[in-house]
Design goal:
Layout (H helix, E strand, L loop, with lengths): L1 H18 L6 E2 H7 L5 H13 L3 E4 L9 H6 L1 E3 L2 E3 L1 E4 L1
Antiparallel strand pairs: 1-5, 2-5, 3-4
Helix pairs in contact: 1-3
């Protein structure tokens, strides 16, 4: 199980680093597309665990009114609001 968790975290970090823009943030929409072979719930759980461990940081998009339906669907509920972006520490 440890190898699977380590491999999953490595894949997530690699994908974030590949798709992050100049701001250092990657959209969860793009991340979910990039890792579409993973079960949605497994990816969400891994992202929440990584955020809690401070490996990544999940953040809301400040422009909530401009979010597309896909961006809203990709979001993760955390701390009383939806998170749409992810960055590495």
């Amino acid at each position: 199980m440890q190898t699977t968790t380590t491999t999953l975290r490595a894949r997530i970090l690699d994908a974030i680093n590949r798709i992050a823009g100049p701001s250092g943030y990657a959209s969860l929409t793009r991340l979910r597309v990039e890792l579409a072979d993973l079960d949605r719930n497994d990816l969400t759980r891994a992202l929440l665990d990584m955020d809690a461990a401070r490996v990544i940081q999940l953040d809301p998009d400040a422009n909530r009114l401009g979010l597309t339906a896909d961006e809203r669907a990709a979001a993760i509920w955390l701390g009383g609001e939806y998170m749409h972006l992810v960055s590495t520490w």
